[in-house]
Amino acid sequence: MKNKKETLLKSIFALIFSQILIKIIGLAYKLYLTNREGFGDSGNAIYSSGFQIYALLLTFSSTGVPNAIAKLVSERVAIGDNKGAHRIFKISFFMFAVAGAIGTVLLFIFAKTIANVWLQIPEAEQSLIALSPSIFFVSIISVFRGYFNGTQRFSATAKSQSIEQFFKTIFTIVLVESVAFLCSVNTTLMAAAANLATSIATAISFAYIYLYYLSKKKDIAQDIVSSTNYIPTRVRRTMKKIIGVAFPISISSLMSSFSKNIDSFTVVRFLKEFMNEVEAKKQYGILSGKIDTLCALPLSINVALVTALVPNIARANAKGNLEDVRNKAKIFLLFSVVIGLPATVGMMIFSEQILNLFFPNACKGADLLRLSSVSILFMLMLQTINGILHGIGEVKMPSIALGIGTIFKFVCNILLIKNPRIGIFGAVIGNIVCNGIAVIMGYSALTRKLKMKLGFNNFFLKPIIATVCMAFFSNYAYKKLNGIIIHKMATILSLGVALIVYIMCTIMLRTFKRNDFKIR
């Protein structure tokens, strides 16, 4: 039993590492695209608008399906019904292969309509066509990942995700450079090439996970032969069960993805009312290609924490130990505040320097980043609160909260972007409002359910003091270093000072207790 637990822990850490690696590699190709001559903010507008449609269509298959299948498979495995678990896998594979193929065909056929009518970015048509095969591949990959997760073979998921992101980055650079050379730096075709890289990468990821499945086929066959308590069920009933489990889990992610799609539908459309189309697309490119990317970076660390800690919440809840659930929920929330607050303030103070550091050839958008950074703390808190709610079995509340927040986001976009004095900032304000409302609703539900209160000193006062000290010393360091050394190195060293000061202050203030790290 001990070795089994150690293997499970290693698997969890493999998933955490893969998530962080994916973010780092993803940032690398984003930096390349944004700084590439002939691509920049205009290319990002075309690339991101197409990719957001793709992301919306894939939310169900990439989030709900693996978790739903993993849940159903693990339930069968737990009672020794390995044959039933594999039957769920086979039915799911057929079901989502068909759904994925239909999705691919529909996106291919309606790419022109979506680009011209929905997005009002005609150049996005080629990008949508290039992305269409990905829907099929990701749909069937999600089934494999769900099956392997349900049988505690987590490394297959971690490796397939890392492989997909690695090849996506490689092929993005190769294809964009090839198109730029052959087509005299055509931004539209370069954006399509970048999205084609996604389709190729998902195909390679599928090839890997299918070969992994074949390599484990003997083990799977032995498990099926030794199966006990086999409970045959109708195919239609199994399909309904998969959809029934997948839908509630997917809907909150769907709402989050749809929130981003609101920007792709509205920003360019409303900005064109008082500026030319080229400038409107550039503004959207700045928001989607740079600002959203930078603000999402801290989320990768929090995803790792959610991945590691939510099972602890669920286990404690299953045992009926409400006090243990409260303690772990508090630690969980404290981690998010401690990560989110300095990230928010750091982005505010060094917005211009960070953009110059990462996007030297397209560094516009400092004011946008400064305002957008407000949403970082809200996004981390929301991610954490939703994770705890899912852990205690409250799967509907996150969807309701995000749904209401998304409605407010839509209203903000409609009312604010049209105002020439606000413009693109209206979309950012909408994001803050959306996440803020969802956090308030989710937190209210959480405290009501767990009957817990957060101490002001530990959860707010101490992190604020540490953040103020960090801001003062890092800003002072930058002012002293800038002019003595090149500004990029001054930025890097100042951010290093910020990290060191913040960690030291957190330790000195005893924000965390020793027992907080003994989570079991």
Question: What are the segments in which pLDDT stays under 50 over at least 5 consecutive residues?
Answer: 1-9
Would you list the SSEs in sequence order as H and E? HHHHHHHHHHHHHHHHHH
Please state the structural category. Answer: mainly alpha
Count of structural domains? 3
Choose one word for the global shape. globular
What is the β-strand count? Answer: 0
Largest sheet, strands/sense/barrel: none
What is the count of helical runs? 18
What is the helix content? over 70%
Overall average residue pLDDT: 81
Cα separation of the termini: 15 Å
Radius of gyration: 23 Å
* % residues in beta strands: under 5%
Structure write-up:
The chain folds into three domains: 1-232, no CATH class; 250-454, no CATH class; 455-520, no CATH class. The chain has 18 helices and no strands. The protein has helices spanning 2-35, 40-78, 82-109, 111-118, 124-150, 154-182, 187-215, 217-225, 235-271, 277-318, 322-349, 351-358, 366-372, 374-391, 396-416, 425-450, 456-481, 487-508. Helix 10 packs parallel to helix 14 (374-391), helix 15 packs antiparallel against helix 16 (425-450) and helix 17 packs antiparallel against helix 18. The longest helix has 42 residues, at 277-318.
